[in-house]
Description:
The protein has 147 residues and is mainly alpha-helical. The chain has helices at residues 2-28, 31-36, 41-54, 56-64, 77-95, 97-103, 110-117, 128-146. The longest helix is centred in the N-terminal third of the chain and has 27 residues, at 2-28.
Amino acid sequence: MAWRDDETKYRSFLNHTYSSTMKIAMKAGDDWAIRSGCLGSSYIAEFSTELMQRYPLLMHRVIGEPWKTWGYGHLTSKDRARHRAKAYLLLVEEAGEEFARTEYDPAELRREIRYVKRGGKLKAPPTRADIEKRDKKLERKRQRQEK
């Protein structure tokens, strides 16, 4: 059983190293890292304004992902779809409609695309304060369960 403990520690170390390296690469502007990396809610909360200005496509793509929450539990499926619609529209501008259709189905996002084109507001990712508040609440809940 000792080898399993070592394996768990090793995986944890590798995951942390990989995550940190990817964040540095994304922050430095590496295109592959930006397209491939996962941005957790705490990372986005820390750099959301800067990331939204520098990499709006990345931000809308990550926030709009329907199958992963990354800590965006405050977003409804409609909110996520609106972010996907914005990502689709940005992708059309940057790479053309044909390529954008390989990433998103505009028929599924018809209403959301119309909403975004009309200037509808998109729900923002949580702030650093929101993340800290959530983490404190979860810690208090964990402590109560341990008693």
